[in-house]
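ok here's MerR family transcriptional regulator, seq below lol
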Amino acid sequence: MKSSDDGGLDGLGIGALAARFGLAAHVLRHWEAMGLLHPGRDAGGRRRYGADDLTRVATILLLKEAGLGLNTIRSLTTGADRATRHAILGPAAEELRSTIAAARASLELIEGGLNCDFEDVTQCPNYRRLITERVGTTQ
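and the structure came out like this:
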């Protein structure tokens, strides 16, 4: 499936598209080989990217930034129905929730150390509470 809407653009070459998104041209070629991009070709066989392709690259980048791999992105962007989308994104969302919870706990520990008036951080109330919770006994 080639890009049909060039939004009035003559079409960007691979170098121009790559530069627009701060990518190396080989990244776009790799995405094409994986079936993520389907650029049109000019009379000389050179890739030409239109408005739909720009949207597609932006979509790929957003999904990558969300932590999804290229195979997952391909599954999501090739007409996945609602059930498939939920099956793919559900575990990814749960993994992200776990990562966020771990980051919050780390931040709480670090901020507790920053806000503690004791010389020895192990004497700080926040630190002692977290250790007690980890050990599972009361001191």
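fwiw The chain has six helices and two strands. kinda neat tbh
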